[in-house]
Every structure is written in C-alpha cells, then in structure tokens.
Fold this sequence. Notes:
With 215 residues, the protein is mainly α. Helices cover 69% and strands 5% of the residues. It has helices at residues 4-24, 40-64, 67-88, 95-101, 111-127, 138-148, 150-170, 175-199; strands spanning 2-3, 205-208, 211-214.
Amino acid sequence: MVDAANAERNAWRVALLYALVHVFGWSVPAWPNDVWFFNPLAWQLLVVLGAWWVIEGKTFWPWVTSRTALAIAILYLVFGLTIALSWSIGPVVSQMLAELVYPPDKSNLAPLRLLHFVALAILVAWVVPRDWRWLTTPVMRGAIRCGENSLAIYCIGVLLALAGHIVLIDISDGLAMQITLSLAGILVMIAAATFLNSIRIKPAATTVGGKTMIS
C-alpha cells in the first residue's frame, strides 16, 4: 500500500537526486557515445511528480486553480518566450541575459524547463475543462493511457529510442524514416499502455487514520 506521506517522502528524495545531478553532473552509462538525450536520473522527477499528483492532487488543486498561480504561470511563459525570441530572431532582452538562461539543458531537465512544464500544467488546468469532449477522442484516450502508465511507458520509450537510433544508423536517417519511426513509436506506446490498462487491477483507495491509502 502507498500512502500520501510515503509518496511525499519519495518525491523529496527524487527531487534531491535531481538537484545532485545538476550539482555534480551525475548520469549513467549510455551507448554509443555516453550521451543521454534524457538523463533518467533527472527526468524521473516528472514521473514521480505525476504519481504524487495522483495521490495528493486534491491538496494541490485549490492552489493550481488559483488566480495567483495562473498569473505566475503566464508571466513565466511570456518570459520564456521573450528569451527564446532573443536567442533566435533578435535582441528582445539583453544578450547577456539571453545567453545566461537559454538554451536550457534538455538532457538533465534544466530547472527552467521543469518550471516551464509546471507553468504549462497550470495553464492547461485552467483552460481545459474536466469534461471536455475532446478528451474522449481516440488520440486523447491514447495519451491519457500513456499517462496512466507513465513509468512503464517511459521505460518502453527508452528501449524504443535505442531501437530507433540503431535503425537510423544502419538503414536510413532520412526524413521519411524519422517520421515513420516516430509514428511507429507512438503507436507502440499507446498499444502497450492499452494492454497494461486491460490487465491491471484497479487500486482501491481507502482512508485510514486520516491518510489516503492506495492498495
């Protein structure tokens, strides 16, 4: 059984590991050139935050849907857009500031990228109703199923990325092949998530001593 206190402790542990990755540059060996496009030691923080949200979402919801959170999220997204424009098309802000914060590190999920993800999540929580009819379309259902099995899909994605890299090296790295591999990978992940949902026993949530327990 997983209770909210354990979920919170695990989230803080992974957050600490995330910080250490950025302080000491920690990673794990990678093939073929020891470079990770998505360092799992850092990117797993998103998975853990998602799990924490599933367990403790009701606690965060009032803050996420507050006008203060929305204002901060919009300001941060505008700031990010301004920096990106300064980097790509011209000096919107000082070049020193643009070079200091952009481009943020993708491999280790730079804090600026993490904050950007949180800001987008807050914005989506505001603009997308829970009963939005498009959430029932096949495409969105596939995305939701992948989100419900985020850790397993992340692991499958790592293997698919390796397989795709081998195909691009040994067969072809043309645009058509890249598009084909991307679409095939998405379909495989949706199929895997659908299969996992079909065999999974739904967890039962109970309240024991004021704590939410998932068994």
